[in-house]
Specification:
Structural class: mainly alpha
Distance between the termini: 46 Å
Largest sheet: 2 strands, antiparallel
Strand order of the largest sheet: 1-2
Helix content: over 70%
Order of helices and strands: HHHEEHHH
Shape: elongated
Number of strands: 2
Radius of gyration: 24 Å
Low-confidence stretches: none
Length: 163
């Protein structure tokens, strides 16, 4: 099962368990349960509310990620068709300004770092090695993730081969 489906299944199971416990508490309360059942009902209510808020946040972030990926894919396709490097770089910058991008990861790499690596690769492939090296040096200081640094080293090796 994919990671997203596992997460959705886990959240759904929490909601179903909370709903089942709520029903059981109401049945016990009708039989003359005490203050304990009333207290547990309040705790369960707040637990359900927290789960609902988390589920809403999860859906919102998923929607933002899909919009980001769709725009990034469209920018890449437009670049392949037109070979307009400057237009592509501007669109990549615009993608990074979308809501929620700061907290997104793509394959374990923060989205902004992924886009920076795309920019370096694009500049290298366009023959603009000077700009690519400048961006690479800036990125080396800012990136901290292991996967990001590995991709950055790969781009650095490719840039050194071109010179």
């Amino acid at each position: 099962m994919k990671k997203d489906k596992k997460a959705a299944t886990g959240i759904l199971s929490l909601v179903l368990w909370a709903a089942l416990l709520t029903v059981l508490l109401h049945l016990l309360d009708r039989r003359g349960g005490g203050h304990l059942i009333e207290g547990l009902g309040h705790v369960l209510y707040w637990l359900m509310l927290c789960i609902a808020v988390f589920f809403f946040w999860w859906l919102l972030m998923g929607r933002r990620l899909r919009k980001f990926m769709k725009r990034l894919d469209r920018a890449g396709l437009d670049y392949l068709r037109s070979r307009d490097v400057d237009g592509y770089l501007l669109e990549l910058d615009a993608c990074c300004e979308m809501a929620g991008v700061r907290n997104m990861t793509l394959g374990g790499i923060p989205a902004k770092e992924y886009v920076t690596i795309l920019k370096i690769r694009t500049l290298r492939e366009a023959g603009r090695e000077g700009e690519a090296f400048a961006l690479l040096e800036t990125a080396k200081q800012e990136m901290k993730g292991e996967k990001s640094l590995l991709l950055l080293r790969d781009e650095e090796e490719k840039l050194e081969k071109h010179q």
